[in-house]
Design goal:
The structure is a single chain. The protein is mainly alpha-helical and 53 residues long. It has one domain (2-46). Helices cover 45% and strands 0% of the residues. It contains 4 helices and no strands. It starts with a helix and ends in a 7-residue tail after the last helix. The mean pLDDT is 92. Residues 19-28 have a biased composition (Basic residues). It comes from Chelonia mydas. This is Large ribosomal subunit protein uL29. Residues 17-53 are annotated as: Disordered.
Length: 53
């Protein structure tokens, strides 16, 4: 079965890819969107959300 063969591979034939618009296929996935740089993590830890004022 082709679906089983291509499962987990980086590239798949066009007819086995999810049917969405071209732009949505190229969008970052949830995991990639949520990644933060070391610098951003540092800034967030230095200036946490204020609990008063």
């Amino acid at each position: 079965n082709l679906r089983k063969f291509y499962k987990g591979k980086k590239y798949k034939p066009l007819d086995l890819r999810p049917k969405t618009t071209r732009a949505r296929r190229r969008r970052l996935n949830k995991y990639e969107e949520s990644l933060k740089t070391k610098k951003q993590q540092r800034k967030e830890s230095l200036y946490p959300v204020r609990k008063f004022a």
